[in-house]
Design a protein that fits this description.
Layout lengths: L2 H25 L7 E8 L10 E4 L2 E11 L4 E8 L8 E7 L6 E7 L14 E3 L4 E3 L3 H13 L3 H15 L3 H20 L1 H20 L1 H20 L1 H24 L1 H20 L1 H21 E2 L2 E2 L14 E2 L20 E2 L22 H4 E3 L5 E4 L5 E3 L7 H4 L15
Parallel strand pairs: 1-7, 2-6, 5-8
Antiparallel strand pairs: 1-4, 2-3, 3-4, 5-6, 9-10, 11-12, 13-14, 14-15
Length: 416
Amino acid sequence: MTASVRSRVSVFAGVVLVISGYAVVEVMNVDPTHRYGVTLHVVRGGGIFPGAVVDYRGQAVGRVRSVTAGPDDVTVALSLDSRRRVPADVTATITSLSALGEQYVSLQPRTDAPDGGPRLVDRAVLGLDRTAEGLETAALLGDTQRLLTSIRPADLRVVVNELATAFAGTGPQLREILRGSTALLDELRSAEPATVDLLAAGRTVLTSAVGHRADFATFSASLADLSARLRDADPTFRSLLATAPGVVGQVAEVLTRDASGVGLLLGNLAAGAQIGAVRVPALQAFTRALPYAASRTSAAMHDGAVWATAYFDDRDPVCTYTGGGPLKSPLDPAVGPPVLTGRCTQLSSRMLQRGADAAPHAPDYTSAASVAVQAAGDPVVVAPDGTAVRLGWDGGQRALLGDASWAAILAAGAGR
């Protein structure tokens, strides 16, 4: 062999080695410099073999290095490329590429995180709880064949004929159903945001209801107790409804017989209500002072006697009342008009201020107009809202007793 031939053979061998290395590293995805091992434990091998592809989300990430059968399971050793990122939280399934394709190992993440979490490391072990055997194509085809052979052609012919008879002439109706379904789907699609908001609001309502479940239980118990009480009181209600017509008839008879007296009674009640309305401030002051007076009275009565103490003030000025004209002698029996504007001219922190001006009254009416007796004899009062009310007149008594109807209030209980 000449030198030229030897050189050509050497060049050819080098090219073959380079091509073989490229095929091993790139085509077969075998790179001994970037590899790490992972072990799988499966119940059955499912036809897996050494050299099979290891796939993660559609990308080849390694090869099966060896398959070893044990007494309880099958151990599959994987050789993975460290340049491909595979998360640690994965499941391994042995499946087939197609009906006639070879088996391979498919790794699938168990979380929805974008990066899948921590990476799978060297010498990691995936136990039986994280491995599964995919559906074998041969077994699927065999089950399908058994299903088809179990169907009798005569029975299938009957079913097809019946379906043809049932749907004969229903083309327009089916077309309308499909159109309506399309319109319904379009409406549902357009209402998707509102539906999502409704579901979110429903979740809020249900959460609130769960938080108030104790209140619902209390309400249900109370409602049950009320229902039981109403059931027990049913005879009483029935008796009341049975006797109500007679009672109503008797009341109607009384009102018909004594219509004039009832009218006068209602008028007097209205007049009394008007008098009370005018004197609301005085009644309020009386109710505030009553507890103090009662406590002081009880304190003065002890040891079988009534104890009283008199204080004489010789340091403060004597109250002089003005505004009501000359003072009348207490011994004078003549009746004069009431003094409504009298007031005390001297002011002292130790002296009790008295007089008409100090009487309790609402801020919006004056003491002169609060109770005014006119020369004609009709008592006119001013209510707290400023409305003038003529007692014995506005309640309807004037229609029965004339202009002096207010006087009937004084003699209402004297006779019939």
